[in-house]
Amino acid sequence: MDLSVHTSTLRACANRLAANADDVSVAASYAAQHLNVHDTGMFVQLSHVNSQVRAHLEDLFKRLEQVGHGSAAELLATARMYDHTDRGVAVAMDRKLAEVGPVPPGSSYEDVRDDFEDTTPVKPDDYEPPEPGDPFAAVPPGAPTGAGGGGGGGSW
Q1: What percentage of the chain carries pLDDT values higher than 90?
Q2: pTM to 2 decimals?
């Protein structure tokens, strides 16, 4: 196994992340400018909800900016580390990674994902009702569930 890190690619990605983080301020100023509802008349209730949404968006924008700049800084630090790492040390690290080996069978995402069965109908007319007695079938409203004799108070 030969690991090859292209530090120029790390730097390009870091620059793109930093630029995206800088663009968050554009979205924040747009939201501040266009998400204003005056609390008069019939808009009083809407104004309260709108204020909450704006507060959540402002928090989200701050976090997005922090994550973008933080990720960019980490990528740049990683690129510097690889630039300054002795080639012999890098080869020794790669060999150590090879000794660890692959993920054991049955432990990877691909192994788990293959067991997943998507039962969502593609089209509304694609629906097939469940088999009688299927424990995972939805119970229609008002249908007997078979749980207890009713009446409450410990009848089950």
Answers
A1: 25
A2: 0.50
